[in-house]
């Protein structure tokens, strides 16, 4: 009886071990083919949905997996013929590049364009760069409204070119220079930058940045997101806090689709202030929400300066902000007018000089 019970027990143990071995084998095969399919794209028909959920989206929580692609646009191209050529498979750039973190930003050292150019030998004429070791997810135009800020521009280029390269972004830098000494119009210059950048390349993402703002953490990724993005949420001049919930100033980003959905930016904000709040209103009125990085990552230092001449505070800004709903369809990119004077490609950026007109006469009080 004892021997019979012992035999049954051993039989059950053996069956259990065999089932565990079979289960282990199945798991190993699944993992093997999963890795194999990611590397050689053999099972892309079945994995597109799953891999897309891993690697697409806002970029705030990407998994870091790499995809590989091969060119099947050639005549009679097949996977087998492509592999036979020995060409290297190129991965898609990770959404969360490694070796990013907090930066030490200072403006005391002397800065020259010659120095910045030596620091960035891989940047091509016009301020263009594309990663050589991976395929970027976004093609980004970085647009800066500008007038008489050459000193600030040197520091901006010194810090931002290395940051953008580390972030594995395909980008171009466009300085939109308002000619003349009439009242400055930041938002209209940004509309000009959007229009002129698209004449050079098929950009699908646009970052709009003031020239005096430098990010203090390169984990603040300069690409577009599912919703319009506000990058500069914690400036030193505001005590590294968001000044108010609807603030959208300093550095922001919109995809081409998002930009057109709000009819671009307003053209009628002459002088300092108001245009960022109008843009925020346009976003919310269009059914979108503003996305922001973590406040510890969205920190910025501002290069100190006095208020620019001919950029005095706009006394009409508060009234205009309250009427965004009525003005956004007729005041924006669809009604933009300007005169292009010169496009000049420098080693580190493209300078676009324009005349954008004068502000209308202010109504007489009383």
From TrEMBL:
Residue span(s) of domain Galactosyltransferase N-terminal: 95-224
E.C. number: 2.4.1.-
Domain of life: Eukaryota
Membrane topology category: Single-pass type II membrane protein
Keyword Chloroplast: no
GO cellular component: Golgi cisterna membrane; Golgi membrane
Lineage: Eukaryota, Metazoa, Chordata, Craniata, Vertebrata
Cofactor(s) needed by this chain: Mn(2+)
Keyword entries, A-Z: Disulfide bond, Glycoprotein, Glycosyltransferase, Golgi apparatus, Manganese, Membrane, Metal-binding, Signal-anchor, Transferase, Transmembrane, Transmembrane helix
UniProt cross-references to Pfam families, sorted A to Z: Glyco_transf_7C (PF02709), Glyco_transf_7N (PF13733)
Functional description taken from the UniProt entry: Responsible for the synthesis of complex-type N-linked oligosaccharides in many glycoproteins as well as the carbohydrate moieties of glycolipids.
Compartments, record wording: Golgi apparatus membrane
Domain Galactosyltransferase C-terminal residue range list: 229-306
Family per record: Belongs to the glycosyltransferase 7 family.
Pathway membership: Protein modification; protein glycosylation
GO biological process: carbohydrate metabolic process
One term of GO molecular function: metal ion binding
Name of the molecule in the record: Beta-1,4-galactosyltransferase
UniProt catalytic activity: N-acetyl-D-glucosamine + UDP-alpha-D-galactose = beta-D-galactosyl-(1->4)-N-acetyl-D-glucosamine + UDP + H(+)
Transmembrane segments: 12-33
